């Protein structure tokens, strides 16, 4: 290629969509349809724009890529409050606690539907508009792209010198030979090529548009999966103490949420038993108290089949018949025994208490609703406010809060009440809270009114022969599980993978066209012209054209330079002069 005459190799900053009107007229069809993106039109069409015109203009705006990106941004922005503000669909208790703690913000949040973001009117509107925008954008572009695949690359423009990358040389090979060699070379480089008139037209990089369309189709798939998940999902929570079990029926759940199209018959037939919970914690250093082992050993069976063993960890759920069982929380359930004044056991068993800090300082209520009689034989109800710490700091060493999550020095403080628990009032009650409106507190030793502090194995004797309550040495642990059935998860994962693949294709693959023209010049020598045009500016286009030119030049080398006009005239004159002598 040392003798190849390169008349022009330039990199233009104008893309196909950015060429001036004059350049587009010069390129003709060669510069068109490098992209399937719809042409942008002005917002106002002048005074002749009627109702139909306004509808068409609105539809073009809605289905434009700009609006689709804006809606996608708004959708992601709208999901922010859903992750920061407690949601009714996820945890009603946290929502109620938030409302009690923020009485000023609560009315505003309720009007804006911020406690139900994903089912709110404004979030649904963004979601539906994005869905319509993507479909309206993809369908015409897909048909246009299919038409481009079925067609052939356009013929060469009249003036190849106007293209961003250009090279030319003269060769003694016939134009037909050059075109045949160019066609073979381009097809060898996986270009779609054909001979159009006096030039070879070739195109490559269709996967760029395919990736672009795949990315947008994948977004629709993700939106559909989200809709399917919201309509057919089911999600419930269950707190289980060691040794207890769970059957996947509606009555077994502590709380349950489902989509509008979900049926109770869709619940997968399985059950499991919590055999044990294991939790270990960092004992020293800045991460003291951080969980190191956090797992629940369970025995489960599905559809009446044989029992199977499994271990559920955080982010490692148990998958059973299309449902996933997640481990989400852990706490302690001290075993207590309540006796009446005659020493008869009224109730005995573990009582789950809810953690209130990272060291599992826990609180709750112990309720004795039936079977208890006072010393006079009168039926009455008992209630105890319980405060439990797995690791007590010691008497006189600050407030009664746990110093470590493990059971190193367990202590429980109890405050007893007697009277009416109001469980028969018809109003729902929190099982972890005690309604003392119609109850009277038991007097404690010294009449201070403070709670009695018990160690495992100790007994708190109620005054006036009312009975006793014993903090047994056996302390069980409980685990809270979330049983979730999300039919759209697999579809969403497929859409996410496809979106990444499509985005990678649209970013890293360049669509470009190459033309090779070979015509015989006025002096009978073939003139070869090569030019390239890309959808977007890239430094690789001139490099690729140079490689193609080098390959073709080896098959059609540069013709020898003609001798200058002066030398041939001088030589005959010299010979003539010699002859005369």
Question: Can you describe what's shown?
Answer:
The protein is α+β, with helices and mostly antiparallel strands and 581 residues long. Helix content is 31%, strand content 28%. It has 11 helices and 22 strands. The protein has helices spanning 21-27, 51-62, 65-84, 92-101, 105-111, 121-150, 175-188, 206-232, 489-508, 540-555, 566-580; strands spanning 165-171, 192-196, 199-204, 234-241, 245-247, 255-258, 270-281, 291-302, 308-313, 318-320, 323-339, 345-350, 354-355, 362-368, 381-389, 411-419, 439-441, 452-454, 459-462, 467-485, 512-520, 526-534. Strands 4, 6, 10, 11, 12, 19 and 20 form a 7-stranded antiparallel beta sheet that branches.
The helix-and-strand class reads alpha+beta
Secondary structure tally: strands: 22
Q: How much helical structure, as a percent, in the residues?
A: 25-40%
Radius of gyration: 40 Å
Strand content: 25-35%
Mean pLDDT: 83
Main sheet summary: 7 strands, antiparallel
What is the 3D form?
elongated
Count up the helices: 11
Stretches with pLDDT under 50, minimum 5 residues: 1-25, 41-46, 567-581
N/C terminus separation: 47 Å
Notable features of this structure?
alpha+beta, six-stranded antiparallel sheet, about 30% helix, about 30% strand, elongated, disordered C terminus
Layout of helices and strands:
Blueprint: H1 21-27, H2 51-62, H3 65-84, H4 92-101, H5 105-111, H6 121-150, E1 165-171, H7 175-188, E2 192-196, E3 199-204, H8 206-232, E4 234-241, E5 245-247, E6 255-258, E7 270-281, E8 291-302, E9 308-313, E10 318-320, E11 323-339, E12 345-350, E13 354-355, E14 362-368, E15 381-389, E16 411-419, E17 439-441, E18 452-454, E19 459-462, E20 467-485, H9 489-508, E21 512-520, E22 526-534, H10 540-555, H11 566-580
Antiparallel strand pairs: 1-22, 2-3, 3-21, 4-6, 4-20, 5-7, 7-8, 8-9, 10-11, 11-12, 11-20, 13-14, 14-15, 15-16, 16-17, 16-18, 19-20, 21-22
């Amino acid at each position: 290629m040392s003798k190849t005459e390169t008349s022009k190799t330039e990199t233009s900053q104008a893309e196909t969509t950015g060429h001036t009107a004059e350049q587009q007229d010069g390129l003709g069809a060669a510069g068109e349809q490098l992209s399937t993106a719809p042409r942008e039109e002005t917002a106002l069409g002048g005074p002749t724009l009627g109702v139909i015109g306004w509808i068409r203009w609105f539809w073009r705006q809605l289905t434009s890529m700009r609006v689709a990106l804006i809606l996608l941004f708004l959708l992601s922005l709208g999901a922010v409050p859903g992750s920061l503000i407690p949601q009714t669909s996820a945890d009603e208790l946290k929502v109620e606690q938030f409302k009690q703690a923020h009485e000023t913000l609560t009315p505003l949040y309720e009007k804006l539907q911020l406690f139900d973001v994903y089912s709110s009117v404004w979030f649904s509107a963004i979601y539906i508009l994005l869905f319509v925008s993507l479909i309206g954008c993809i369908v015409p572009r897909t048909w246009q792209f299919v038409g481009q695949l079925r067609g052939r690359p356009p013929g060469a423009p009249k003036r190849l010198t106007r293209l961003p990358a250009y090279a030319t040389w003269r060769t003694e090979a016939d134009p037909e030979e050059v075109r045949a060699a160019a066609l073979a070379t381009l097809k060898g480089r996986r270009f779609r090529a054909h001979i159009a008139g006096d030039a070879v037209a070739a195109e490559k990089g269709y996967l760029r548009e395919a990736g672009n369309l795949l990315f947008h189709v994948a977004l629709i798939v993700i939106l559909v999966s989200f809709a399917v998940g919201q309509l057919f999902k089911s999600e419930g929570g269950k707190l289980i103490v060691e040794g207890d079990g769970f059957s996947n029926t509606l009555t077994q759940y502590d709380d349950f949420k489902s989509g509008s199209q979900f049926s109770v018959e869709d619940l997968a037939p399985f059950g499991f038993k919590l055999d044990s919970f294991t939790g270990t914690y960092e004992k020293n250093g800045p991460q003291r108290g951080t969980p190191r082992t956090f797992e629940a050993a369970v025995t489960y069976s599905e559809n009446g089949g044989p029992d199977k063993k499994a271990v559920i960890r955080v982010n490692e759920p148990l998958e059973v018949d299309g449902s996933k069982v997640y481990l989400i929380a852990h706490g302690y359930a001290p075993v207590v025994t309540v006796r009446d004044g005659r020493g008869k056991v009224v109730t005995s068993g573990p009582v789950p208490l809810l953690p209130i800090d990272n060291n599992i300082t826990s609180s709750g209520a112990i309720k004795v609703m039936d079977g208890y009689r006072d010393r006079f034989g009168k039926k009455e109800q008992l209630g105890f406010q319980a405060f439990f710490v797995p690791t007590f700091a010691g008497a006189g060493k600050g407030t009664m809060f746990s110093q470590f999550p493990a059971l190193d020095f367990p202590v429980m403080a109890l405050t007893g009440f007697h009277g009416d628990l109001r469980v028969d009032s018809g109003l729902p009650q929190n099982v972890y809270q005690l309604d003392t409106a119609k109850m009277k507190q038991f007097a404690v030793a010294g009449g201070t009114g403070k709670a009695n502090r018990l160690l495992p194995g100790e007994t708190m004797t109620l005054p006036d022969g009312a009975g006793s309550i014993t903090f047994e040495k056996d302390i069980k642990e409980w685990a809270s599980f979330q049983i979730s059935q999300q039919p759209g998860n697999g579809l969403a994962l497929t859409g996410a993978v496809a979106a990444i693949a499509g985005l990678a294709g649209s970013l890293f693959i360049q669509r470009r066209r190459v033309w090779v023209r070979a015509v015989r010049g006025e002096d009978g020598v073939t003139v070869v012209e090569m030019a390239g045009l890309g959808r977007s500016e890239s430094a690789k286009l001139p490099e690729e054209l140079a490689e193609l030119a080098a390959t073709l030049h080896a098959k059609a080398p540069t013709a020898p330079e003609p001798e200058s006009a002066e030398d041939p005239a001088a030589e005959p004159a010299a010979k003539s002069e010699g002859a005369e002598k």
